[in-house]
Amino acid sequence: MKEELIELRNKIIGLKKEPTGYPSIDKTHEEGYSYFKLHPIIPNLSIANAVDLINLFNGNQDAVDSIYLSVNYRELQKNSDILAKSFKELGVRAGDIVTVCMDNTYQAILVFLAANKIGAITTFLNYRESKHEIKNYLNLFESPILVNFNKDSEYNEEIKRDTKVRNIITLDEKDLYTKDFNEKDNTKLYGYSDFITFNDLGIISSFQKGPINKLYGKNRDALLLYTSGSSGNPKTVVLTNENVLANGIYCKSTINLPQDKNERCLSFVPFKYPYGFATSVLLTFLCGRTVVVLPEGLTRENAKDALKNINYYYGSPALVDVLKNTVPDDVDLSSGHTFVTGGDFWTEKTEKTANEFFKKHNNDRMIYCNGAGNAETVATWSSSVGTPIKKGTVGKILVGSDPIVVDSDTMQEVKYGEEGTLLISGKHVFREYYNNPELTNKEIVNINGKRYYNTRTIGSLDEDRYFKLTGRESRFYILNDGNKVYCEKIQNFISLIDVVESCVVVPKPNDETRFSGKAYIVLKNGIDASDEVKKYIIDECSKEYILQNGEKKSIASFEIPSDIEFVDKIQLTDADKIDYLFYENEANNEYEKEKSKSLKLKK
To answer: How far apart are CA 483 and CA 485, in angstroms?
Structure first.
């Protein structure tokens, strides 16, 4: 606090220090922001109470639109209060974990708000996960309540028998687009069964007399969400009310959103990931806008209704391909103005494809905002929404957070513009990995008494707070001569080659060099897979490419993949990210087969 006061005094009297080039000393990236934006106060509220408070005068505005159902903010508050009473009557206590297993629906959002109001924690599981996987999670979390979609009594009875779940609440398919939940038959007594329909909840709530204590503060755990698991098993991240509210405040301090409250924001990523729920849904609520969800996914049949009057698209680069392959030619998308993307790299080629698609659908004004984040920072640590776009970057590090870039080997800070590993400090940094203190201690770094999260992201910070992302620590391999090869750097370069549509690069074991690069490549339409095309791609890897913004791209000879395989499409995870683990396994299996064949030949 003393250093901050000295810094504030120096700014007031105009005292300037000789620049050192180090961000933590010069703080050039903080210039132009007020002290209170850089050090905001996070209100001592639950997320649900903050949503209610912010939208106190937005009662008639749509809060959620799920294609064939619209719910305004007044109805959202009323129905979440009813659900909160139902959960209380069913014995849910503060700190309990309520598990939701359904796709992106209005009812899933409602469950979170209700649980949050009584101090309970919510986690989302993929509706299509195996029964075995769902039971594992339920037992890990000791969930007293499971909310699922369209499951029969046999399925529910097995889940209950093999877990500690007391009650299973099932949303029937016919009620997917029902606004409220009031069973017509008032003689039904829920107490005779542990299996409940969503429509029973209105009656159950009536047994709870008097007000519900909703005065839970920012330090309460609110969500258990997951990392994308693109190169390993997903990790369960514990997010508090403060984490989510801080992320919202940091985002609003960084970006300049227009004040139109009627804007509609498409939430496309599954709710189990922070980008799908905390960013796309909760941040939209905290801005007083409308969340659009697609309970049955995007199809050719529903595209016209699903994408009507969408202003913001929240998705990954993979959403471009989904839209391109799904939306009929006659669907008008002229209302869209901002495409917010994260997760994988946003390349010039992806932007060209997106531009061609939207122009075909009467839209030539779309702005593409490529940000970055981790589940551990509520999906966001940088944003390019509402700020000048700086090509080659993932936007500005969120104002209110404290970034530092270090040498990954020595953990010493590097200067502005120098490449290193990004560490982030701030109140949006997660509390812990669920039930895994060892991993938490590994990823949390203490520097000069401040708690930082190691994003494992490689890049550089400039004086204007923009971050240039060049790779990820977890996606590299080391050759026997000590050289590091960052896979994203290589695949991004290969994607510039004129015959390449998309590319994935992974390490493949090699007896001579430890590893070599294996590239899985999708060719552009009209290009036939052949040895000549492979040779052409390898030859192009030795050249220098100049991007439209004048930036030069090249790779070293040791970085050029030694093996290329053509594939029809890139395998994705359910978070719409490249499934790197799948390709790493493919490369390892190929190596084992080659080694086995070689041994047989020697014999």
So the answer is: 7
